[in-house]
Write a structure and sequence with these properties.
Blueprint lengths: L2 H27 L13 H27 L5 H31 L4
Helix pairs in contact: 1-2, 1-3, 2-3
């Protein structure tokens, strides 16, 4: 796999993980992950922040696409949101893949 393929794969892993976490959170709470959850108090705040950190790329893209389609925001906002989401997904993908490689290297799986 070439360098670009490796980057794309890493971004895809991070974004898929973000989508899975966002979907699981919505399944458990009956509401989507959103930046408004940061105003929760107590133990719910810790869970909400953790979910938002992991689901961040999916939340950013959902908000960007809705902003473009519903609020007629310019395409520049969608492009910038895509870059931010891709960077976040890449970092998350690096973490996940590093964890998987470490687990496999140590014979835990």
């Amino acid at each position: 796999m070439g360098t670009f393929g490796g980057y794309a794969y890493t971004i895809a892993v991070g974004f898929v993980a973000a989508g899975l976490i966002a979907s699981f959170y919505q399944l458990l709470t009956s509401r989507p992950v959103a930046f408004e959850i940061l105003f929760n108090r107590g133990p719910a705040a810790v869970v909400s922040v953790f979910a938002l950190v992991l689901a961040g790329p999916a939340v950013i893209m959902r908000n960007a696409i809705r902003g473009r389609l519903i609020e007629n925001r310019s395409g520049h906002w969608l492009a910038l949101s895509t870059v931010i989401s891709a960077a976040w997904s890449f970092l998350q993908g690096v973490f996940i893949l590093s964890f998987v490689i470490a687990v496999r290297h140590n014979g835990l799986v």
